[in-house]
Each structure stands twice: as C-alpha cells, then as structure tokens.
C-alpha cells in the first residue's frame, strides 16, 4: 500500500493526466457531481455519488457504430468508431465499481461487444472507499463492502492522506508511474477507517434489506404477485431510474440520415419507455405494469438466474433520490418480502 | 409548516370513501424516509389510515394522473389538490382530458413545499429522522450528534419561493381556507437571462441543457403533456429520438416541448422539480408565459375552464414578429 | 417505393437560357425513386404531355416531377396529363425552375445547381405522395335567408327566380326591414315604399319562397350543402293562414298606448297590431306583453270582432326543422343607442332625434302624416341642425361609438337637408360635418345640389353641446374653416347616428361558425375576391351585416350572394379539395385545440371506443374533419401538439423531406 | 470575386396564395435575388410548424424565412394571425437561447409585391451572410 498527503493530490492528478485522460468527480454546477475531465483548475469534489454513474465511460449514452452511404444500388460501409484513448477514472465508489462486473457479464460474454471491450481495455479505475454513506445506501444488501472498494487501484481518503492499493496489472503500472509522489505505508489507518464505516453501515435505515426472497428460480413466485399493480400505479414511465442506474445496460440501435449518408448509432434505452423493444409486430410489454415489473424482475430474478446468482443492482441509491415519484427498488423489494424481520 | 394536518385529510378521505361519495382516493403514500412520498391510489379506509402522508414533501401534482385513473376506474376518485395543482386541473378540463364528473376535488391549502436537495445541501447526507415543527424541519443525521433545525424559508422548493397563487381555482370541497393570487417575482430569473448578451445566453443554456439525459421525466410529469402519443416517441414525426445525441437534439427537445405547452403551461413547476439533472426547465416555460403576458396581455393558463389559449387566439393588431425584440429591449 | 419520372422543361429559352436542363435531368436520375428522367422544349405542349403519358405507361411510373414554370401556372395541366395517363393527379409535383430560378438568376452554373436542388426537393416530396381522391357530398336544394330586409328580399327573389325554394326567417312580424321605414332614397329621391313594397309583394306571391316572420333561427348544424336548421316561429296568437289583415281587431283593441316600434316610439299602436299598411305577411300580431287577454285573461275583444276567427290565444311557439344547402345572412343593421351621447341632449329633449326618426317624421305614413313637426309641441321647426358622424369614426371614443365610418349618413343627411329646404323654404338648415363623403354614382352631384341649389348651410366642424332652453335647443359648435365658435338656436336637432350590426348577428355567427370582425360585422371569405361569401363554406353574406352600405350596394351584394347560392344549389354533388386535414384518431387527444383555430368550423368531436395500447377499451374524444368544409389551410396541424392532425398534400413528412433535400 | 465566398443557405416557406405568387411575380419581372434562397410552398404560413424551422437549421440552413399574406388578407382569413403569434414567440425563444435573431424572419408579401419579395430576400440573405455559418443550431452529423 502506498500513500500521499492530500496536499499532493493536485500534483498526483497532473502526473496521471500526463499520459492519460483523467476524470475526477467535480461539481456539475447544479448541486450535483459528475465525472469531469481533469485539467488545471478543475476542483476535486468530495462527494458520495455522482448523479450519473461512471458506466458512461464504457457504455456511452450515445455511440456511433458505423456509417453507410447508398449510391445507386451500392451500400458502402465505414467504420467510424473513435480510437479509444487511455483514460483513468478516479473516485469510483464501491457500488459503481461492482456495476462494471455486472456490465462485463453482458457485454464481454460471447458475442463480445467490441465497442465496450475496447473502452474497458483502455480504462483504469481508481476506486474510493466510502466514509459517510447516505441513508439511501444499501450496497451491503448485495454483498458490497463500501470500505473495501475494488477497481484497478483501491483508494482510501482520510483527513490528511490518500491511500492507494493496486489490484491489477493496469493498476500496478499506473501506481508505479506516480511512484515519485507517493510513499510505501502500512494499512493501519485504512483499517481503522474501514472499521468505522462498517459500523455506520449497520446503522443505516436500509440495513435490514435482504435479497432472500429474490434470485434465480423465483420467476413464477414473483411474476404474478398482486403487488406489481400498486407498485407501478404511479410510475410515469420516464427513464430517470434507468439512466442514473449504474447497471442498466439496455440500448436501442438507430439510424440517423444525415442527408449524405446514414449514421448507425446506439443509445441508452429504458424498459420503462412505452416504445421499448418495439418491433414489427408491436410492443412486447404493453402496460406500464409490465414494463415496471420487467425492470425489477430483471435486476432481481432474471439476471441472477443467468449470472450465477449475481444481482443486477449495487445499492447505490441513485434511483431512490432521483425518481420523480419516489418509487424504487427498495420499495419493490420490501413489498415483495425483502425485509429482514 | 403545513397548517392543515394529516388527520384532517385522512378523516376527510375516510369519510368520503365510507359514505360512498368516492370509490378511491388519490393521495400521497408513505415511503422509506419522511421525504420520499409516492402518489398512491387508496381503495380502503385502512390503507389510508396506515399509509396516507401529508407533510412538507407532498409536492407531486396529481392532476395529470386523473387522465389515466378516470379511464381505469369505474367510479369516482377523490383527489387532493394544492392551489397550484388546481390550475393544471382546469387546464386539463379545458382540453377535455377527463370527465369532471368522475372526480371529487378536495382543495388543500399549501404553505409551500420543501425541496429535499436543499435540505441535504445544509445538513449533508445520512438523514435518519425528520421532525416537522413550527420553526422548521428538525433533521437528525447519522453523522451529527445534535439534530439540526433548518428554517422553512431556506428549503422551500424553487416554485414555492415564487408561488404564484394560494387560490384554489377548482374544487368540490375545500379544507381550510383558500388564499389569493400572489404577486411573485417568478419572472426575475427570466429577465436576468434576457439581460445577458446573446453569447452569454447561449453559453448559459448550453451549460444547462448539456446535462439533459433525455429521461423524459419533465415531459412525463408535465400536466400539459398528456398527448396520447408524444411527437418525441413517434418515428413519423420527424422529431423522435431517444437520446440527446448532441447539442442540437438537446435544444430541439426542449424548444419544442416548451413550445407545445406554451400558453397551456400553468407554471406548476413539476418539470424542474423532477429533473434529475436540476435543469431549470421552468425558465423556458416562464419565458413563454412572460412573452405572452407582454405581447398579448396577461394570461394565466388554468385560471378558468374553457378559456382560449393565447396560441389558438389572435388579435388583428397583434405585435409583429419583427417587433418582438424591440418590445422586449425597450422594457 | 415510388417509380418517379422527372420531366425537365426548357420553356424555350426561358428556362434553358440559364439552366442546363440536360444536367438537371441527368442529376435527378440518381435520386431515390427516380426511374426515368428527360427534358423537352415545352412540357406543357401536346407533344410534351405525350412524353409524360408515354413514360407513365412505358416505365410504370407512380409519380411525376415536372421541373417547369410555377405550379400556379401549370399544376392543373400536368395533373390532367397524369389523370389521362391513368395516374392519380395528386401524384404530380412541380419544381418551379422558371419563376423561382431561371428568371431570377443570371449565372448558368448557379441556376443549374439551384434547379437540381429544387428538383430533388420535389422528388423527395413525391416519394411520400399518396393518391388523393376528393370527397363528395350531396346538396340540399333549398336556401335559407336570415333577415327579411331589402338584402334578404333581393337575395330570396333572385334565388327563387332561378327555381330554387327559399325560406326567409324574419324576427319582426313583417319583412321589409329598415328600408320600409324610410321616406325617400338618395340620390334619386324615389319613394322607398314605392320601390320596396312591390318587391315585398313579389316575395309573398312567389311560390318558391316561404316567409317565416316573427321567427328566429334557433340552431344550425351541418355544413355546406347540408345544413340542419331549427327555426322557432313565435306565437303571434293569430292564425296566419286565416287572418285577412282587415284590421278590424286593431281598431277595436282597447290597449291603445303601446309605443309603436315601427315609428320608433313616436306614436302608439294597439296590443294587436299590423306594423304598417303594406306589411308582408299582412296579418295581425298580438303583443303578449301588452294584451290584457294574454296577461290576465280579461278582454277578448279582438277574438269577438274577428269574423275570420283567426285569433288564437292558446297559440304556442312552433319549432320548424328544415334542411338547407346554403345559408344567407342578411341580418342588417341598427342605429346605435344615443344614451351615451349626453352632449347632444338626446335623452333630455324630444326635439333631438336620430335620422331614422327624422325619416318617420317626414314619411306620409309616419306619426305626423309626413308633415315636419317637432315632436315636443308639434310646431313647424324653423331652424334645423343636422349633426353628422355621431358615434362614427370615433377612434377615441370606442366605448360609446364606433371606429368605422357608417358610410350612409353623409348622403341621407344631404337628402334630409335638401328635402326640408324643398318643402319648407323658410327653414334654415345647418349640417355639421367632419368630411362629406360622396363616392357613389351621382352622389357628389346630389350633395352639391343640396348646397348650391337648396342653400343648405354645410359647416365643417363638430357640435360640442346641445342644451335645451325654453322651446329652443342651444347648439354650440365650431366652424373649423372660419375658425370660430357658433351658437345656433335650433328648433330641431337631427343626429346621424352610427350604425352597427344587429345584435342577433353574434349568436348567429357562433351557430354558423362564421367569423366576425371586432365590430361584429361578418367577415368575408376574401375582402376583394370573395366579398359575398363567408369563410365558412355554404354561408353567404348579404347587406349591412357585412359592413355599412346603402341600398344600391346592398341590392347588388344581395344579388351577388344569390348568384353564389344559385351556383352552389345547381350542383348535385359537391366535390371537395382533397388536400385537407385529417386526424389520426389513435394519436388524437380530443383537446379541441385544432377546432379552436379552424376558420371554417370543419372540426367536430366524437366519443369513440378504442382499444388502448394497454389492451383496455376506452371511450375517447377524437377529432373528425368534415371534408366538405375543410379548406386545407393547415392551421390545425401546427396547433395539434401530438401531430395527430396532418394535411394531405402537405404532410409534415413531405415538408420535412423537402427541407432535408434542400439542406442536403 | 473570391472562389470560396461563403454562401448562406436560406429556406423560405411561402404561402401559396400570396408570397409564393409574389415570388413568381419577382420572376416574371426578372428581379434578382440570391440563388441561396430555396422556396418551399405551403398552403398558408400557418402550415409552418416550428419543427420544420428547427429541422432546416439542423440540416444546415443558415436562415429561415416565413412569408405569408398581409394581416387581413389571408386566403383562409386568419391563418397568418396564428403564424404571427407562433413565430413571435418562437423567435423570441430562440433569441432567449442565444440563437442569433437575424437568422429567422417573418414577412408579409402579397401576390402583387414581386419587388418586395426580391428586396426582402436580398436583405435577408445579406443579413444572414453577415452572421456567417449557423453554429448554434447545427447538427454536426449533417455537416460531413
């Protein structure tokens, strides 16, 4: 484990930014935080979660896939993907780091999504342990320890120092590139902080949430629950939960006719949208109840069923604070028996 | 800070449900915390007694729900409407969006609603309890030994800071007393932006709109956006898109959305309340309202049922489009 | 996918002089959907049209783009060509490369480039064209004329003469209108009654005309060719078919002190009355507010004296429903109330009267049997002051007067002044005016005769105040030319009151969805080119309901309206313009926004049951466009937020395709 | 003359009954205006949806002008009055968003005003050219 004084932080960022594009949490000028490209003058913001999760780095909101031109009866294809540059994301919380595992299973299993894979290869994640979880946090429900975040490099920030621990080769390499700014240290301070954080986690209002009644094999039991009706009653069908969610991975592929050719691009889609997966025959889920159910069944039942019991939620709490009508996965889980007695 | 109590609302709802006046009640339902109330349709008195909430976080405007709920329900539905919600209610009636006979409106006085993000900006995250007192909200957090009292004026939602009216313009029954239409400073922000140079205005709006994630929450919550099929969801409209692919798309969406509700927007402020990216969308709508007031005479959408919206009306001597800027710049 | 043929016209050298037509034809060959492209000297010539027809057959064309002169020139020509070749005529689009390209640009390269772009836009549009068929609707061959003044009478007579049945609905017990109250008419000084009453008799005797007098239009539904109208025939308590108009009942009626409307209250009539001797229908009417029998069940004299047995105290209002193909509005005008013009002491002195009252005073059938006597003491007035523009051209006093010129006052005042001087040369006559407006045949000559031959004193200036003092009226006025104040002791002051549309017009306009201006005059379909038609198809305008006008003008407009009605009723079926709006019911919100902007009232709403996307059934209010009424302006398409409303021939997608093609 | 002189692209929506005929008259009288102006015929100015205007800008137009009948002369009696309100509000909103106000215009041109049509187009094209390329309402995807 290595450490540096917090006063060295700007220098550290500058050093990393020399050979990588560096993103750090900074103010979005609207009361929230967003991962912002670091350059001289960008202030690191000590925040818990950014409004949008860092999944954007690997799975951008919109991404051009290819372009084609039609001349007469000929179609010409062009690969217009942007060459991925090396980049580093600093300050990713444990929950968001975990979300990459969930996305990886979707995009990196056969057939591999080369756009995602390429971005994953070029990105280095420096995580950051939590010390002040919010009342909306429930990562522990999904077995995540916010005091021990994964990532290429794990980081802990105390009042005066930043502690760094490389977990992967990419992490090692990055850490060694900033060796001059850091020093070797032991993990005493980190452990103390971890201890404190874990205690807080037990006191959180959502600490009693459990996944016991969910997981693979629960489809028949949960699908026809009468609860879905009242749970989805007020759902507006907007995409807020989906778009702030670090694990939602649905997208639509669309063509944009520029007048001189067609750009085929993909963009995030939301299973809450009435037009979601509309096909030639029409929509597969016609009511908001079905669409609402799909989102939560996917996270809590279908995904774990196909992914060795891994749930597709990391308890980051973004949907809890952003849903216009305050309906969210916690309320859904509790309604369906997800509360420890 | 609400003067009317939860008990008053609950007993009203229960009695109207039990005496058969209504078959369901649209109200605010209990959440995990004090502030995350969810619009809920209650069908039994027990549910109401147990889960009905009335506090300073009951911001949601229920008017729009009446479009779908009156279609779904056989009988009559009770809806609690705050003064600003009643304007949306009237506007929807003007546009024949639901059957007035299927709704029983109970007007609830409102002292202004709180914005939880403003609370958290003061207290920080980790709220474990909220007490509602006369002096303000008393907030207990996981990280502070002593609870903190935050004054109401510091945490009022933006739209409540500039409340346009405490008057209920529609109701079957009123709890407490209705108030007056207020003088508000709601156009000050608009005027400030107008006073910027075009470059500054462009930069300002680029900064704001670039945060848009096109979640459609502003549209989906808007009581003026009740189209059976929105142009932005319709591939044949020429405007359909799912993502803010670039700055043009961001502008297009918000310009057209504001234009479609121009003259119909009651300025209820729901768009800005729900925006996950805190884009001040009300400043687009208020721009249209202010222009309409200036160009064609004061008009408040929803003040009455059956009025003709300014964009479906005209005067022979209306302002010419070429004189718009002169008019504005001369103010 | 369409199979489009492109035909580029040289128009001799008109186009080919600045546009390389071969290059245009060549460039458009590569556009999507284009399977054939050529150019020719004169596409509109027989040979040119044959090229198009042959190409349609040879290449199985489904769409045609002609790059030529303005569509306003030859769109119809090429549509016919397409139809002759078996194509739907609406599958043709014109790229205007003459008026909007070759004629305004000088450089061959620029001209050619622009022509290609305009051609591409037309191709892009045709790709989205769909065959359109005009709708048809039947025509009920009967006309309704609302108002039985000279306008309504003339219109009805002309329509009836053409062989179509006409109904006149008149609110008063008799037809005749304002003209029946007049004495002489300018500028010829014929007696109004002498020229009007024969026409009234013609109406009564015309087999094609029915008169619903003492009646009101209650409801109008439907559209051009197919109006359903409900008429309320008010109870007159006299059986119209039986009454002979002998007048015995009137003579014997004991209720004698009822102000006589026909003489503007300057004398009295009975509770049962015939408005005037030449009334049509000449039948008595009982005034229910004055008749003792109807009010208290006491009297019954008229019933006793009526030998025909026409009196029926139990008569009820009758509701008549009838179908009409056309509706003519001829609701006329009224002088405005003088109540707000205190400065002229109208309400203080009986000797301050309006010009219409003056007409009655000089009329042989009037309250003074045609002798000019002042109302207060029935003395002969020696000094008369006429005040023009009372309430007219009153821009600053909109709350009491009218901004517009009432048009007829200058001439009738000249007439009045002249007649007074003619009959009573000992009378001094002053006319105060702002301007004297005499733009009509023999009008100015007439006015000059009043001044030059009859010695009427015309003074440019306004009367400031009229004060009754003793048996005189002190008139304070200014003479703007002499620039001095005048004080005249007058015996009689006559006010040329502004005229305004009849109050019934507003509610009628609502029923007809016909538009009105801010003064409640009906708006014409086009102020220059369609002056006697309302924008609402099938509704026509006759007389002063459209704007102030004198008798000759009214009669000519009445006849013009009649000819328009005849033109409509001659048709068995109406063929609509197929380029009209239509609502996609699945997307329609039923919000009424489109109906609010429709100038023609073409949009109505229906509750229809729909299978909703969520598989439930719902009753939804959806817009219906009446194809016979819609004119295709497109106002609704932009008002419609959801885009449910689209305009055939100018669909949103077509216009967007043109935009895209131009901006490519 | 410069080889690469900047040429603005201008879309003109013209009402069939007045302005389009006015443009025809300008042609009849051989009155010049820049070829950069491309006319789209609409039945009435009230057919012009703000979406069409934004679409034109998206696709690379540098200026959009809508021409209709003079107030009071609308073939459909009132279409241009609605246009006037819609465009007044839209133009004001675009200005509020920082879009150059000279890029949009609403003009009344009658069928008899060929000269006015040509003069209006000359003037508008000149003003738009002075602004340069439309950068604020463009969609870069369409500029390739």
Q: Could you explain how this protein is built, in words?
A:
The complex is a heterotetramer of chains A (341), B (331), C (664) and D (144). With 341 residues, chain A is α+β, with helices and mostly antiparallel strands. Chain A has 11 helices and 12 strands. In chain A, the strands form 3 sheets. Chain A has a 4-stranded antiparallel β-sheet with strand order 8-9-1-10. A 4-stranded mixed β-sheet of chain A has the order 3-2-6-7. A 4-stranded antiparallel β-sheet of chain A has the order 5-4-12-11, with no helix packed on it. In chain A, strand 11 (251-257) and strand 12 (262-268) form a beta hairpin. The longest helix of chain A has 19 residues, at 288-306. Chain B is an alpha/beta fold. Chain B contains 14 helices and 9 strands. Chain B has helices at residues 6-18, 45-51, 65-72, 83-94, 116-123, 152-155, 158-161, 188-194, 198-209, 217-221, 247-261, 270-274, 282-296, 324-329, and strands at residues 24-29, 38-42, 52-53, 77-81, 103-107, 127-133, 136-141, 148-150, 173-174. In chain B, strands 1, 2, 3, 4, 5 and 9 form a 6-stranded mixed β-sheet that branches. Chain B has a 3-stranded antiparallel β-sheet with strand order 6-7-8. The longest helix of chain B has 15 residues, at 247-261. Chain B is globular, with a radius of gyration of 21 Å. Chain C folds into 5 domains: 4-126, 3-Layer(aba) Sandwich (Rossmann fold), CATH 3.40.50; 141-227 and 318-332 and 502-573, FAD/NAD(P)-binding domain; 235-316, Alpha-Beta Plaits, CATH 3.30.70.20; 335-500, 3-Layer(bba) Sandwich (FAD/NAD(P)-binding domain); 581-648, 2-Layer Sandwich (Alpha-Beta Plaits), CATH 3.30.70.3270. Helix content of chain D is 38%, strand content 16%. In chain D, helix 1 (19-28) packs across helix 4 (114-131). Chains A and B meet through helix 8, strand 11, strand 12, helix 10 and helix 11 of A and strand 2, helix 5 and helix 10 of B.
Give a brief description.
With 331 residues, chain B is of the alpha/beta class. Chain B has helices at residues 6-18, 45-51, 65-72, 83-94, 116-123, 152-155, 158-161, 188-194, 198-209, 217-221, 247-261, 270-274, 282-296, 324-329; strands at residues 24-29, 38-42, 52-53, 77-81, 103-107, 127-133, 136-141, 148-150, 173-174. Chain C is built from 19 helices and 34 strands.
């Amino acid at each position: 484990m290595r450490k540096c004084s917090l006063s060295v932080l700007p220098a550290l960022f500058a050093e990393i930014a020399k050979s990588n594009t560096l993103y750090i949490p900074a103010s979005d000028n609207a009361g929230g935080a967003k991962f912002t490209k670091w350059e001289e003058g960008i202030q690191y913001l000590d925040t818990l979660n950014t409004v949008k999760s860092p999944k954007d780095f690997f799975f951008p909101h919109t991404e051009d896939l290819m372009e084609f031109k039609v001349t007469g009866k000929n179609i010409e294809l062009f690969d217009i993907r942007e060459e991925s540059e090396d980049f580093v994301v600093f300050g990713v919380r444990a929950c968001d780091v975990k979300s990459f595992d969930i996305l990886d299973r979707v995009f990196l299993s056969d057939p591999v999504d080369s756009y995602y894979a390429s971005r994953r290869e070029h990105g280095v994640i420096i995580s950051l342990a939590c010390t002040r979880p919010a009342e909306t946090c429930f990562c522990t429900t999904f077995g995540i320890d916010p005091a021990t975040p994964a990532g290429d490099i794990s980081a802990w920030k105390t009042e005066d120092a930043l502690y760094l621990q490389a977990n992967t080769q990419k992490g090692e390499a990055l850490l060694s590139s900033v060796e001059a700014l850091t020093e070797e240290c032991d993990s005493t301070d980190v452990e103390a902080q971890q201890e404190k954080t874990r205690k807080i986690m037990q006191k959180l209002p959502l600490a009693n949430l459990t996944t016991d009644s969910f997981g693979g094999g629960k489809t028949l039991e949960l699908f026809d629950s009468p609860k879905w009706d009242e749970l989805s009653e007020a759902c507006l069908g907007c995409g807020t939960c989906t778009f702030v969610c670090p694990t939602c991975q649905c997208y639509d592929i669309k063509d944009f006719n520029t007048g001189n050719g067609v750009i085929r691009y993909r963009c995030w889609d939301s299973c809450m949208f009435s037009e979601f997966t509309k096909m030639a025959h029409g929509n597969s889920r016609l009511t908001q109840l079905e669409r609402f159910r799909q989102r939560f069944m996917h996270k809590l039942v279908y995904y774990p069923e196909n992914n060795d019991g891994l749930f597709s939620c990391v308890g980051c709490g973004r949907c809890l604070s952003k849903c216009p009508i305050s309906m969210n996965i916690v309320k859904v889980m509790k309604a369906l028996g997800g509360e420890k007695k | 800070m609400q003067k009317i109590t939860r008990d008053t609302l609950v007993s009203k709802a229960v009695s109207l449900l039990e005496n058969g006046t209504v078959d369901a009640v649209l109200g605010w339902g209990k959440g995990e915390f004090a502030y995350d109330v969810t619009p809920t349709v209650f069908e039994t008195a027990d549910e109401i007694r147990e889960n009905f909430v009335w506090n300073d976080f009951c911001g949601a405007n229920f008017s729009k729900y009446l479009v779908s709920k009156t279609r779904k329900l056989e009988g009559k539905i009770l809806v609690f409407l705050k003064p600003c919600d009643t304007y949306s209610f009237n506007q929807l009636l003007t546009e024949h969006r639901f059957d007035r006979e299927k709704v029983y409106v109970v007007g609830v006085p409102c002292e202004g609603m709180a914005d939880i993000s403003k609370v958290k900006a003061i207290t920080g995250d980790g709220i474990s309890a909220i007490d509602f007192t006369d002096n303000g909200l008393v907030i207990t957090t996981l990280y502070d030994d002593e609870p903190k009292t935050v004054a109401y004026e510091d945490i009022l939602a933006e739209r409540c800071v500039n409340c346009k009216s405490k008057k209920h313009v529609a109701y079957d029954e009123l709890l407490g007393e209705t108030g007056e239409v207020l003088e508000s400073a709601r156009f000050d922000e608009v005027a400030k932006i107008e006073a910027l140079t075009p470059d500054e205005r462009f930069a300002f709006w680029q900064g704001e709109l670039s945060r848009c994630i096109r979640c459609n929450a502003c549209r989906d919550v808007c009581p003026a956006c009740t189209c059976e099929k929105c142009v932005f969801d319709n591939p044949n409209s020429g405007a359909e898109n799912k993502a803010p692919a670039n700055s043009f798309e961001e502008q297009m969406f918000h310009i057209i959305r504001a234009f479609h509700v121009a003259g119909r927007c009651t300025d209820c402020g729901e768009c800005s309340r729900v925006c996950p990216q805190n884009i001040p969308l009300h400043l687009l709508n208020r721009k249209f309202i202010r222009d309409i007031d200036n160009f064609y005479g004061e008009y408040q959408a929803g003040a009455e049922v059956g009025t003709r919206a300014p964009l479906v009306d005209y005067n022979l001597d209306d302002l010419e489009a070429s004189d718009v800027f002169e008019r504005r710049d001369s103010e | 996918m369409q199979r489009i043929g492109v035909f580029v016209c040289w128009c001799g050298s008109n186009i080919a002089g600045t546009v390389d037509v071969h290059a245009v034809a060549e460039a458009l060959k590569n556009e999507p959907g284009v399977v054939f492209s050529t150019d020719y000297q004169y596409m509109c010539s027989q040979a040119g049209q044959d090229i198009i027809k042959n190409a349609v057959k040879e290449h199985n064309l489904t769409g045609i783009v002609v790059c030529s002169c303005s569509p306003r020139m030859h769109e119809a020509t090429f549509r016919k060509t397409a139809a002759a070749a078996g194509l739907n005529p609406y599958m043709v689009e014109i790229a205007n490369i003459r008026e909007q390209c070759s004629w305004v640009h000088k450089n061959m390269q620029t001209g050619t480039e622009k022509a290609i772009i305009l051609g591409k836009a037309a191709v892009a549009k045709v790709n989205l064209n769909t065959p359109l068929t005009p709708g048809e609707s039947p025509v009920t061959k009967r006309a309704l004329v609302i108002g039985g003044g000279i306008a309504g009478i003339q219109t009805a007579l002309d329509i009836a003469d053409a062989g179509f049945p006409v109904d006149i609905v008149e609110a008063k017990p008799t037809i005749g209108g304002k003209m029946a109250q007049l004495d002489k008419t300018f500028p010829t000084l014929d007696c109004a009654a002498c020229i009007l009453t024969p026409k009234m008799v013609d109406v009564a005797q015309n087999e094609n005309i029915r008169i619903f007098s003492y009646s009101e239009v209650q409801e109008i539904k439907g559209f051009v060719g197919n109006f359903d109208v409900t008429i309320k025939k008010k109870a007159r308590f006299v059986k119209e078919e039986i009454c002979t108009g002998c007048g015995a009942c009137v003579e014997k009626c004991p209720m004698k002190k009822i102000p006589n409307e026909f003489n503007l209250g300057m004398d009295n009539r009975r509770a049962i009355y015939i408005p005037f001797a030449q009334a049509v229908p000449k039948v008595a009417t009982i005034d229910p507010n004055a008749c003792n029998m109807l009010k208290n069940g006491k009297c019954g004299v008229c019933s006793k004296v009526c030998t025909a047995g026409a009196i029926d105290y139990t008569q009820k209002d009758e509701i008549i429903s009838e179908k009409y193909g056309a509706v003519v509005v001829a609701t006329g005008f009224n002088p405005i109330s003088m109540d707000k013009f205190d400065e002229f002491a109208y309400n203080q002195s009986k000797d301050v009267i309006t010009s219409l009252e003056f007409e009655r005073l000089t009329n042989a059938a009037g309250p003074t049997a045609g002798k000019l006597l002042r109302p207060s003491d029935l003395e002969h007035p020696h000094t008369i002051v006429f005040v023009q523009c009372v309430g007219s051209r009153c821009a600053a006093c909109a709350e009491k007067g009218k901004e517009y010129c009432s048009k007829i006052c200058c001439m009738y005042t000249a007439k009045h002044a002249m007649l007074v001087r003619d009959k009573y040369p000992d009378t001094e006559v002053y006319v105060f005016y702002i301007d004297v407006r005499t733009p009509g045949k023999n009008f100015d000559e007439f006015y000059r005769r009043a001044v030059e031959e009859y010695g009427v004193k015309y003074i440019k200036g306004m009367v400031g105040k009229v004060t009754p003092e003793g048996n005189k009226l002190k008139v304070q006025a200014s003479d703007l030319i002499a620039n001095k104040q005048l004080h005249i002791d007058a015996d009689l002051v006559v006010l040329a009151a502004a005229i305004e549309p009849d109050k019934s017009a507003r509610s009628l306009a609502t029923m007809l969805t016909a538009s009105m201006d801010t003064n409640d005059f009906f708006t014409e379909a086009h102020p220059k080119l369609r002056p006697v038609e309302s924008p609402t198809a099938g509704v026509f305008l006759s007389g002063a309901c459209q704007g102030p006008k004198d008798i000759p003008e009214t009669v000519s407009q009445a006849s013009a309206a009649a000819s328009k009605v005849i033109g409509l009723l001659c048709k068995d079926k109406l063929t609509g313009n197929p380029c009209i709006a239509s609502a996609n019911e699945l997307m329609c919100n039923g919000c009424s926004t489109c109906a609010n902007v429709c100038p023609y009232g073409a949009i109505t709403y229906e509750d229809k049951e729909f299978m909703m996307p969520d598989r439930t059934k719902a009753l939804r209010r959806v817009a219906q466009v009446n194809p016979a009424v819609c004119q295709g302006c497109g106002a609704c398409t932009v008002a419609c937020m959801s885009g449910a409303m689209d305009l055939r021939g100018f669909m949103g997608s077509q216009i967007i395709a043109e935009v895209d093609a131009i901006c490519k | 003359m410069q080889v690469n002189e900047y040429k603005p692209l201008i879309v003109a929506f013209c009402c069939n009954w007045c302005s389009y005929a006015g443009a025809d008259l300008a042609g009849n009288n051989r009155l010049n205006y820049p070829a950069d102006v491309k006319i789209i015929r609409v039945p009435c100015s009230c057919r012009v949806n703000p979406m069409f205007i934004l679409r034109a800008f998206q696709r690379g137009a540098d200026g959009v002008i809508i021409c209709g009948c003079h107030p009071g002369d609308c073939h459909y009696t009132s279409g241009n009055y609605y246009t006037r309100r819609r465009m007044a509000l839209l133009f004001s909103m675009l200005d509020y968003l920082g879009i150059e106000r000279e890029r949009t215009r609403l003009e009344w041109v009658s069928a008899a005003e060929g000269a006015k049509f040509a003069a209006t187009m000359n003037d508008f094209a000149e003003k738009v050219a002075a602004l340069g390329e439309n950068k604020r309402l463009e969609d870069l995807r369409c500029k390739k």
